[in-house]
């Protein structure tokens, strides 16, 4: 049974199908230049790409994290003088932690939510004076003197300390221990517990699961600039359903994990906010809303500490209220509000200026394109700093003296990201600072006279340099040139560059795609193809950045490799994303099928040998697309898939789908089980058995239902692995299996 398609799309597909060339089975592809084993071995083929780049407070140095050459998963802290010279290692992670310590569940969750797969030094922070750097590592916290390199362990305990930070004036180190908030006086060494009632289902200063995973808020406490106050969240998880997960470890042992996991339509954790006065010890609760059905999204302080700006998102996520809170009394008043008929995407773009005004970004614009807005101290709009049918990516810096705002954005095309400056008063159009046809990111010094810029494009792995404010490069931090000695140098000649193009969706929307031709490409032959899909919100697949080795692995093994960003993808404005509203698994599927028929229309693609694969939302899309177009793909690989949105968490699912109670039809049609009668395309299903994000129950339920229907499918589970499969050996195993599966279904006869 074929799916019923919208009439314009059905006609378009019919027209393409009529043009199908006769196909022949391609000859075996030549031996690939790049092996799976080398793709995941150390050193990384991307090269020594620094991360977590920042300036010292006085701008004299640049610091960053860099992987060990012999082990790409372990990070050390490096530095470089801003005036030039070679980078040097500042802190060796193996010296501070000779043996890797087993992480607590709280720290594992923090890293999983932040998608941190590395070990060693994964975060650090300069002190205000620029004399020392705070280095948390494996539950311990070290204070490193920059000049001498000496490291002092701050807490001499067996306990695991998390979320450690230096206070704004540099007098304290704050941290979480045993679900309570502590501070240590750096001068006296005195330690003080600011809360004592954390434990069990109650925590202080920590973010609950959905705030970490779906709102990108991974802390639960915020210092005032003058160090007099700390805003701290109290989280009570007792209302949340306890989902027992059976984690099967690599040694075969099994452990039942109690996880408070709020599924769509069910209870969230109860989150309260308090203002702690360090001088008096008083604690004032902040009244957030008339109901507990909301999310504490962000907190920012005024530069003079006179007020805290508390962003509260209602549970449907269609109304954002910014409260102005008096830290002494805890009283709050509405300062700024936004509402929408779809959803609000939270950002970190909120900057308080010395005159009391605020700069933020918002999608409350025509077309839902994110732009910069200037607000007065009373919350009224002063002016729109930017506008147009393009997207601001994020605020980078504000030069108050010269009245300029610096930001990255997708102004020329949604495929390229550049750095721009614009007058704060909006009197002129943005000026592009960076060059090239790729993706830039930037980190500015405190005086906005220089920035650390990183650039990449499809043939250039990330390059990082120090740049003047006009975009002139002053020094390389990591040139990462593909010359002899670079890990990718021996494969550079075989590197395949993608082709870019656009297709038109059924409603006339322009969709971007990329396409890689096989290494042995001959236009007179036909080849198997693999289509990659993510398909969900807050993600963009097609862009002019370095795509890593995955596409190369497919192309060098004789595949055409293709991806298209369907309606619902990111960086095209909220209206583009809103095609998913209350109907996940519909518009995205239509657009991916449009991409499939484009592939099949190409003379050099074997129309009978096209596969589809994706992970997470892409795993969901692989299942949904093959089920709604039975037999159109020859094979599919679905990793860590959602199979029923009623099994996924509140904050993500309800943002796009509302609750199951309010949108039963959307949940029904968005479930894989509603379409399982159409199973025809063979599937390879993969899931980590300790996945605490897309819980393993999603796949287990699908396995059971397919088995009851006597459907043939293949599966692979990974004991101890969460939402991603980590480690060199497992990555090699995973990709060996994926290629073996596609080779059997797309290359071999029968």
Q: What layout of secondary structure does this protein have?
A:
Blueprint lengths: L6 H11 L18 H4 L11 E5 L5 E8 L2 E11 L6 E4 L1 H4 L8 H9 L5 E2 L4 E2 L5 E6 L2 E6 L5 E3 L7 E6 L5 E6 L2 E6 L5 E3 L8 E3 L4 H6 L6 E3 L5 E8 L5 E7 L5 E7 L9 E8 L5 E4 L7 E8 L6 E7 L4 E7 L6 E8 L10 E3 L5 E5 L8 E5 L5 E4 L6 E9 L4 E7 L7 E6 L7 E2 L6 E6 L5 E8 L2 E9 L4 E6 L10 H4 L6 E6 L5 E7 L10 E6 L17 H7 L3 E5 L9 H4 L9 H15 L3 E11 L1 H12 L6 E5 L10 H8 L6 H6 L13 E6 L8 H12 L5 E5 L9 H20 L3
Helix pairs in contact: 1-9, 9-10
Structural features, described:
The chain has 750 residues and is an alpha+beta fold. It folds into 4 domains: 50-180, Neuraminidase, CATH 2.120.10; 194-339, no CATH class; 372-484, 6 Propeller (Neuraminidase); 498-747, Alpha/Beta hydrolase fold, catalytic domain (Rossmann fold, 3-Layer(aba) Sandwich). Helix content is 16%, strand content 35%. It is built from 14 helices and 44 strands. An 8-stranded mixed β-sheet has the order 37-38-40-39-41-42-43-44, sandwiched between helices. Strands 1, 2, 3, 4 and 5 form a 5-stranded mixed β-sheet that branches. The chain is globular and about 75 Å long. The two termini are 23 Å apart. 47% of the residues are buried. Mean pLDDT is 92; it is low at 1-26.
